[in-house]
Amino acid sequence: MQGVPPPSNSTVPPMIGHRLRHMMMHMTFFWGRDSEILFDGWPGYGRPGMYILALAVVFLLAIFVEWLSHCNIVRKPARQGRAAAGLLQTIMYGVRIGLAYLVMLAVMSFNAGVFLAAIAGHVLGFFFIGSLAFEKPAPPDSTKTTDLPPMSCC
């Protein structure tokens, strides 16, 4: 029984060839605004304004991750409010981890601009929120704590 011969490259419809070009993923860092970050088709190709918006979103996500890592919203709860405080901390932890993974996935686009935006967001977020530069003096009888445990790099 004879099989059907495979199609030659010249018979591939133009739209499929166009789609195949966009499906290729970079495996090394590259410079350029033509990239897909986090979602299919976003920020798109040949749209510099959307690329700048994508960089700003990654930058702000990184700052928000740093804020969640150093915030102190939950006050020391009374005995009856411990469960609610623990639930709030757990929700905040889930949001922080989810956003940190989004930043990581954006960096995995291997776009150097996205990488720099993520690093800049984490660095500036830590400088303004977590460093000693803007720390308010604490009362002598209190210890500085945050709502969430530090993110571990190990």
TrEMBL record:
Gene Ontology MF terms in the entry: copper ion transmembrane transporter activity
Transmembrane region(s): 49-69, 90-108, 114-134
Major site of localization recorded for this protein: membrane
Bilayer topology annotation: Multi-pass membrane protein
Keywords: Copper, Copper transport, Ion transport, Membrane, Transmembrane, Transmembrane helix, Transport
UniProt keyword Transferase present: no
The protein's name in its UniProt record: Copper transport protein
Lineage of producing organism: Eukaryota, Viridiplantae, Streptophyta, Embryophyta, Tracheophyta
Cross-referenced InterPro entries: Cop_transporter
Pfam family, one: Ctr
Keyword Transmembrane helix: yes
Subcellular location as annotated: Membrane
GO cellular component: plasma membrane
Similarity comment: Belongs to the copper transporter (Ctr) (TC 1.A.56) family. SLC31A subfamily.
Signal peptide span: none
